[in-house]
Amino acid sequence: xxxxxxxxxxxxxxxxxxQTNAVNRWKRKNAFGMLFHCAMHPVLYALLxxxxxxxxxxxxxKFSLNxxxxxxxxxxxxxxEDEWRVFTIFKYHTPDNTLYFLWDQVIHVALIFAxxxxxxxxxxxxxxxxxxxxxxxxxxxxxxxxxxILIYFIEQDIFGKPFPRTFEKYAxxxxxxxxxxxxxxxxxxxxxxAGFWLGEMVFVRLTKRMNFSWTGFLVGAPLAVICGFLSRxxxxx
Length: 237
Hints:
Layout: H1 2-17, H2 21-29, H3 31-48, E1 56-60, E2 63-66, H4 67-91, H5 98-122, H6 133-159, H7 166-182, H8 189-206, H9 214-235
Antiparallel strand pairs: 1-2
């Protein structure tokens, strides 16, 4: 599972952390933008799995694929899926909503899992989480950038709200990150700090000190709590 978690971390970084608003608009306008976005994935995959790239990842009888070949395969499938999503949105007016966003991610992760599953079939291992750092990285991206996109789609579907301004986006991201990091504090201080942080998030909204939505809290806070709690288990395991 070493390769799976490293590939998943690379996917989340490329699809969320490094996919800025400008990149997202560019990839929907022309093929060069789409190619730029999709090319970030194999670059990160290669960097994160570099020690294993020359080794055979998938072997079955006389058929063999090394790491480079598998990364190329993932790049092509990611490009096809993203092109199809953009094509259906503009050609057939498929709603670009929360369900379509989640379905798109399911497809991407399923393709990574398929490669990792074949890899596990070729090189069986009993360890689900052999390394901590890529899993912590995945939980970090889910808490920050992925949650920002998920909250945007939910608020767009329910209230028709536009994408948040840059300050609001990163302020809310910092709010979730603070809650996430609270769980990594040692001993009982972690859960206590997380409780105070949650209280501050509620206080900010009740007093309207910041124009933060309750949707962002109801979706983002549980995600930060879950990811923070899992990170705490992994970090102190």
